[in-house]
Structures are given as C-alpha cells and as structure tokens.
Amino acid sequence: MSEVFATTGTIAAIATAVVPQQGSVGIVRVSGSEAMALAQTLFHTPGRQAWESHRILYGYIRHPQTQQLVDEALLLIMKAPRSYTREDVVEFHCHGGIMAVQQVLQLCLENGARLAQPGEFTLRAFLNGRLDLTQAEGIADLVGAKSPQAAQTALAGLQGKLAHPIRQLRANCLDILAEIEARIDFEEDLPPLDDKAIISEIEKIAAEITRLLATKDKGELLRTGLKVAIVGRPNVGKSSLLNAWSRSDRAIVTDLPGTTRDVVESQLVVGGIPVQVLDTAGIRETTDQVEKIGVERSRRAANAADLVLLTIDASAGWTEGDQEIYEQVQHRPLILVINKIDLVEESERKTLQSQIPNPNSKIVTAAAQNQGIDALETAILELVKAEKVQAADMDLAINQRQAAALTQAKISLEQVQTTIVQQLPLDFWTIDLRGAIQALGEITGEEVTESVLDRIFSKFCIGK
User: Fold this and answer.
1) Of 144, 376, 152, which is closest to residue 270 (Cα–Cα)?
2) What gap in Å lies between CA 440 and CA 51, rounded to an integer?
3) CA distance 199 to 204
4) 27-40 burial string, b = 16+ CB within 10 Å, else e?
5) Minimal CA–CA distance to 368: which of 241, 281, 231?
6) Nearest to 411 by CA among 389, 426, 433
C-alpha cells in the first residue's frame, strides 16, 4: 500500500460530525492491536464492570499523567474479529460539541495511536476480508445519500447485491478459461472444444454485463440528483414557484421586477430523486450593473442545468421577452411553466395556449396559491422516464468506476469471440479472456491495484 494508506499501527479519528453547540454525542473511534491497551490507559470504570467484547462500559476519561478529568463517557468494546475492521476496536462515546471529542482524540494520539486517513477504517475492513470493494463503495454512497431511494440502493450494494452477479460472471469466465487451458495442456487426451458452445456462453456473460451497465445512469441520477433551473422574465413568479415547491420562504417575493439578483438554491426530493432547484434572476436587458451580473449567472445556470423550467406570466401572455429566453434554452430539456393561471379567464387561456411553443411538456401553476406543484413533479418524472432513467425499484446502480471495469470486460469478451471466429490458436483465446476476468475482479477487489484503492478510499470522510 502507499504511504497514504499505510495500514499498520493503531488508528484513531472522530467518527461523528463536530459542530459547536450541536449534537448530543461525539464518538472517537480507535482500531488496531493497541486499541484495548489505550482504552485501559484513558478510561476509568467505577465498580466491577467487565471489560468484555461487545459490552458498553460507563466511566470517566482522564489524562493518564495528571489524572485530570476530561469527560464522563461510555466505552464500547469490539474485539477482533467481531468488529468493523476485524481488528480490536474501541469507541469513546463522549458529550457532543467540539472540546470533549477533540481532547479525547488528542489523548489517543499522545498515547500510541495515529490519526486515521480518510476511509482507513473501511480500507482495513476491505483488506481484512470484512467487505469487498462494492460493499465499501456502498458505505460511501450510504453516507452521502441524498434521498431515501439512494440510501436503499446503497444498502443493496452493502448487502452484496452487486457483488454476487459480478462474482458469478467472473466464475463463469474462469470456467471457460479452465476448459481452454485444459485443451492446451492435454489436447490429445480430451475431445475438441465446441466453439459454438463457448461463443454462446460468452454471449450470455456479455448480455448480463450489458444489463448491469444499463444501471449506470440510474446510479448517477440517485447519487448526484437533477439540477433544475427556474428561468424567465422578471416578476413572472419564479421565486413564488420555488417557495411553493420547497414549502419555505427561500426566495424574496415582491411585486417589484428584478428582486432576485442572484441564484437561490433549494434541495428537494421528487419521486426518490434528489433535486437541486435553482431560482435565477429574471432575464432581461438592463443597465443595472448588479442585475446584469445576476442575469449572466441565470444564463450560466440554465446552460448547466439538467432541466430548465421556463416560467411565464399567464396574465401577461406570451411576450417577446419570453420568446427570446425560449430561443436561448430550447436546446435544453425543458418544461414550460405557465404561472399565475388563476389571474386568467378561461377564454384567455385558450388564446395563450395557441401562442406558446410546444416544448417537451407544459404545465399550469398558481404558485402564490400553492397550486400545480404536483403536476410539476409529475412532469419532471415523466421526462426522466422518457430518457429511460427509472427512479424507482432499483436494487442495483453501478458507479463510474464499476461501469469502466464492466465496459472493459465486455470489450475483452467481444475480442475473444472475434479470435474464435478467426480460428486463431487457443493461446490467443486466453489473452482477452484473462483481461475480462481481471476487469471483473477489479470491481469486487479480487484483483485490484494500489492506485485504485487510493482513488476509492481517499473520497471517504475521516473516521469511516
């Protein structure tokens, strides 16, 4: 392993968020051969409490030299191999805040432990056979989940629902390789290979890889979510739409055009998908320098968004300004939001419908009256499904690293098929077949390089 992940010695880190005046409990986690000895040095238990595995002790943390009281706490003991890292692990459950946990961590570092690197506890769990790489990545996804659906998908990965099919595919490739190598070594003693049967097996493996690759976009959607920009002329009700949608007063709402001068952000969940909603400044020509900056940021937000909600004022009709904005954003996935519909008579609505262009979808809202939000969310989910990205009932959702390895495995298998069709010697068959086996092994960690581990675990938070 690299110096970044030198996995020797006893490590310690704060395992909970440290926020001033927030959080009732703070945890300092210690893992390694000296974890128990360190705990016995710092933790003092009144009475006759047994220092046994998977027990919680009550007591006091004291400075070992001065005996100064640092905190009244609980100590959780988990002895190897029945722990997260399969090493001896102890956790000091201190009072929350800043000072208590930081002082306890400092005492751990002064008495033989070193500060853990990002993800080092989980790395040790992987290296000690507690987890495979897909499960480790599932933990990272669970910590960073932005919606219940994302959390469920991460839990599925943690439970091995991705590792199992990958291992089965790799085992199938190994069986084919064994058949081929047996013919190379004992050609005279065995019947000839059935080329068509080998190709058929490879096609089945490639088809399953294709099925798994199809979940990549789903995984990206759940992990990063949709970025949605609300754009339009000033005073068409963009901020009211954001407030009604988020059920909060994130944006200032007045009758004055140009009130929003910057991009206002809100985090929502729609149909299990995390959604980052950006309320932008009204787009118009202006001489106000501050407003100009806001308008330019609005244009950039629209161009960077996964979906644009072009909002118009129904009472004003389809204006030249609306048309100009539409021409700027029509190349993006688009929903036309006809707002303030409550201010328009039925006859005027028909006239307006004939004026507006026909984007992917359009809905009507009365944001100030909290009307039309359900229709908006339905329209968003319909667009998502139209892009063949299903947001519900997902057990599997691969990430970019896993997709790259699966793609390489598929390419290698296709090359094996080409080699067989060209009737090249059996030795050539094994070259690309081994490449597919290696690529599949990289997903679960059965074959993995130091650089891959560095890249995966450096993204973890310290203490996990």
Assistant:
1) 376
2) 43
3) 9
4) bbbbbbebbbebbe
5) 241
6) 433
Residue 264 CA from chain centroid, whole number: 23
72 pLDDT above the threshold of 80: yes
The DSSP bridge pattern shows strands 89-95 and 307-313 to be unpaired
Give the amino acid at 346.
E
- Report whether 61 contacts 94 (CB < 8 A): yes
With beta carbons less than 8 A apart as the criterion, state whether 15 and 120 touch. Answer: no
The stretch 381-406 carries a mean pLDDT of: 70
Residue 21's Cβ-count burial label (10 Å; 0-12, 13-18, 19+) is exposed
Question: CA 39, CA 93: separation in Å to the nearest integer?
Answer: 12
Strand partners, 44: 60
Confidence of residue 31 (pLDDT cuts 50, 70, 90): very high
Q: Coil, strand or helix: which one is 303?
A: helix
Other CB atoms within a 10 A radius of the CB of residue 200 amount to 10
Q: Return d(Cα 367, Cα 363) in angstroms, integer.
A: 12
Q: How far is 194 from 181, CA to CA, in rounded Å?
A: 14
The per-residue pLDDT for 388 is: 38
Q: How far is CA 239 from CA 233, 263, 280, 290, 368, in A?
A: 12, 10, 8, 18, 10
Q: Residue 120: which pLDDT band, with cuts at 50, 70 and 90?
A: very high
**Residue 24 neighbours by CB distance under 10 Å:** 7
Q: How far apart are CA 431 and CA 449, in angstroms?
A: 19
Task: Confirm if 53 and 89 have CB atoms less than 8 A apart.
Answer: no
Q: How far apart are CA 305 and CA 91, in angstroms?
A: 43
Give 114's DSSP letter: E
φ/ψ of residue 334, rounded to 5: -140, 140
Split at pLDDT 50, 70, 90, the class of 389 is: very low
- Identify the sign of the CA torsion 244, 358, 221, 233: negative
Longest dimension (CA), the chain: 90
The angle at the Cα of 331, spanning 327 to 335, to the nearest 5 degrees, equals: 85
Q: What is the rounded distance in angstroms from the CA atom of residue 75 to the CA atom of residue 53?
A: 11
**Order of strands across the sheet that contains 334-339:** 264-270, 273-279, 226-232, 307-313, 334-339, 361-364
69-78: strand order across its sheet: 43-44, 55-62, 69-78, 89-95, 25-31, 11-14, 114-115
C-alpha torsion sign, points 181, 184, 185, 187: positive
